[in-house]
Structure formats: structure tokens, C-alpha cells
Amino acid sequence: MILYARIATPLGPLIATAVEGALTATHFEDSRHAPDITRDWVEAPRALALSECARQLAEYFSGTRQHFELSLLARGTPFQERIWHEIARIPFGETTTYAALAARSGKAGAARAAGAATGRNPLSILIPCHRVVGSSGTLTGYAGGVERKARLLALEGAGAMMRAA
Hints:
- There is one protein chain.
- The protein has helices spanning about 50-60, 80-90, 100-105, 110-120, 145-155; strands at about 5, 15-20, 20-30, 40-45, 95, 130-135, 140, 165.
- A 4-stranded mixed beta sheet has the order 3-2-1-4, covered by helices on one side.
- It is globular.
- The chain folds into 2 domains: about 5-60, Double Stranded RNA Binding Domain (2-Layer Sandwich), CATH 3.30.160; about 80-165, Orthogonal Bundle (Arc Repressor Mutant, subunit A), CATH 1.10.10.10.
- The chain is built from 5 helices and 8 strands, in the order ββββααβααββαβ.
- The protein is of the alpha/beta class and about 160 residues long.
- The longest helix is centred in the middle third of the chain and has 15 residues, at about 50-60.
């Protein structure tokens, strides 16, 4: 059974989903890959995984949390999962490039594939794909919109180094 909650953030509402106590998605409601809520989903904002996600996101946006301590279940292809694992390792306030991400995942030269996998990240903010930028430092691509990406980086103190594409 898929449980879900709408979580208010300073950047707009997120839809968070959980299955068996693990978060499976966090998408801005208006983002490119936001899921459609279906009849078989159960709205359960008090479910532990969802309420804890909301609490930790509130702390993140207030500047008191830099790391999330949540049970995550991101499902994708083996390559996507390797990319998401590498994204999760990018420290708060730092960025990396799609090319470096591809190399760290064992696929040097596959920056575009790394970008595509990054774009399909189901756990926005929790797996911090906003920390991945173009090789020249430009803010390219973000399913939630480049303006949100810039604001997330600025929240983390990395925004001053970036420029919009």
C-alpha cells in the first residue's frame, strides 16, 4: 500500500510517498516527474516515515539540518541507482558535475546518461540532485525547476558559485 502526504516547504508543496516504512518519493507537486495520486493511495501524514520526513525537511529549510536520517527506497535501473548513490554522497553545501558523477559511478564519459539518471531521481532534496551542475558550473536541469535548484544551493551556501544556464 502506498501512503502519501503533502508537505509544505518554502519552495512549494512536496508529495511524499512511503511503502512499508520507507520513503519512495518526494516530488514538488508541479515538477516534471511528480506522480499522480491514485485512488489506491492512502493519505497518511501521520505515518511515521512521512511525519519524520516532514519534520526533517522543516529542519533543513530552517537551516538546522544538513543530513537526513530517513529510510529511503529509490528504485530504478542499476545505473540509476548507482548515480543516486553517488549523489547521496555529495556533501551539504558542495556541488559536483554530471561528468564527475558519471566517472564516480564507473561510467566515465557518460555525463548525459548521468544527467538523465539524475533527472529521474525519485527523492528530491533527500537525494540531493540539486547539487549536480554542468561542467562550467551552470545550473542545468532540475525536475523541480532551475529556480528551485538555485534556491536550494543558496540555502546550503553553494549558490554564490553557480550561474543559470
